[in-house]
Amino acid sequence: MAIEYLGLSAINGPMVVLEGVSGAAYDEIVEMTVDGNKRKLGRIIEVYEDKAVIQVFEGTEGMGLNNVHTRLTGHPMELGVSTEMLGRTMNGIGVPIDGLGEILPEKMLDVNGKPLNPVTREYPRNYIRTGISAIDGLMTLIRGQKLPIFSGNGLPHDQLAAQIVQQASLGDDSDEQFAIVFAAMGVKHDVAEFFRRTFEESGVSSHVAMFMNLANDPVVERLITPKCALTLAEYLAFEKNMHILVILTDMTSFAEAMREVSSSKGEIPSRKGFPGYLYSELAALYERAGIVKGVNGSVTQIPILTMPNDDITHPIPDLTGYITEGQIVLDRELNGQSVYPPINVLPSLSRLMKDGIGEGYTRADHQAVANQLFSCYAKVGDARALASVIGEDELSPLDKKYLVFGREFEHRFVGQDPHDNRNIITTLNIGWQLLGLLPKEELDRIDTKILAQYYKATKLDENGDLVDAETGESAADAGAAAQR
């Protein structure tokens, strides 16, 4: 028989203290009734003798020391999961907020997930197409990978996230089930409305499950939102054999919520005031991506975080970089030049890319083209630095070609229309057209056989269009003819 406790001993921010408790357990969920009708959920975060410290998810507003009845449930936080959650919008703890009625759960699952035996993991293979050349071509997202986006305040990471949701797929020839779990933490109302409207208008809502924690929602709820999203993702992937892409935005809001709650508990702070267990909490979320042997599904993660003051050494991006397999870095200077998406290629990478591209996955020349584009763009930086000292007119003809290549690379390859959904062949062909601006002997990262098959010298005509250097034909048309 469940025991109900009357009243509270203390209230401190989102925390309450209950005395005279017996049989309480760490991480146990409690149900709290305020004034006999309002129901709130809480989680026990500390137990000492007969005292329990409880974190209240919906906040302690309206709660007093004498108007609360508390009941221990005997189990940790659970989420009722169902395939019906695709196409629905929930709040941060999985309660529907779209006015379409309750969701009948197919199963109740612990939001903390189950420990996954590392031996049962499979190495990630195959890629997920985002339709964005800079990502697909140079830092390819592999199924089962965790690849974060490092952004900054004012940069278009929300627009990029929405574009990835709209365009992401397993490729044109795949018949496997694919869905997206989207979790937003601490977002403003206008941003939440932007996501909802964009997904609805583009027709992708039916295979997207949205968890929305708004900026004015309780801070404690923010800590549960990514766990709820990943719990649903694991259910769909490992029990329903679906390939799930999880987008978590903004992990900085999650970490700052953790700092606020830690401060309320009186814990000793670590770097920048964050708790010492920030690393383990982030790892507990990020490591819930992957592929399990014997299961057709996979969980792939794209966490998005805004770097405070654009500082990549800040604890949040710093610790995230330790755990994840690469990063995509957005650049303020490129954004100022109206390049969208403003992805800074040089500090960005995907550590698992090499195992999910090439022949049988994308195209045989993919790795070589990516290596060469990285190498050439690195030399662009040297040419620009030299030009800033001696002036562009004094540069050698080769350095001038690198300046042209750099400008065209940023605007034609990295930059693309927000509604432009490029396939991998188009992306690689654009890469070859840009490499054609440079002399053949400069392309030292590509095998001679591949070079002979794909290389064609290009130049800019008087209109600024890329054309074949010999025939004057559009480079895109010439490349398509060569493919045929």
Question: Can you walk through the features of this model?
Answer:
The protein is built from 13 helices and 21 strands. The model has no long low-confidence stretch (mean pLDDT 92). The longest helix has 25 residues, at 366-390. Helix 4 crosses helix 5 (251-264) and helix 6 (278-286) crosses helix 7. The chain is elongated. The strands form five sheets. It has an eight-stranded mixed beta sheet with strand order 9-14-13-15-17-12-18-19, with helices on both faces. Strands 1-7-4-5-6-3-2 form a seven-stranded antiparallel beta sheet, with no helix packed on it. Strands 8-10 form a two-stranded antiparallel ribbon. It has helices spanning 133-138, 157-167, 189-202, 219-238, 251-264, 278-286, 315-323, 332-336, 366-390, 397-414, 424-435, 448-454, 475-483, and strands at residues 4-6, 10-12, 15-18, 28-34, 38-48, 51-56, 68-76, 78-81, 89-91, 107-110, 121-122, 149-151, 178-187, 208-214, 243-249, 291-292, 298-306, 326-330, 343-350, 458-460, 466-468. Helices cover 33% and strands 23% of the residues. The protein starts with a strand and ends with a helix. It has 484 residues and is of the alpha/beta class. The protein folds into three domains: 4-76, Elongation Factor Tu (Ef-tu), domain 3; 79-355, Rossmann fold (3-Layer(aba) Sandwich); 366-483, Bovine Mitochondrial F1-ATPase, ATP Synthase Beta Chain, Chain D, domain3, CATH 1.10.1140.
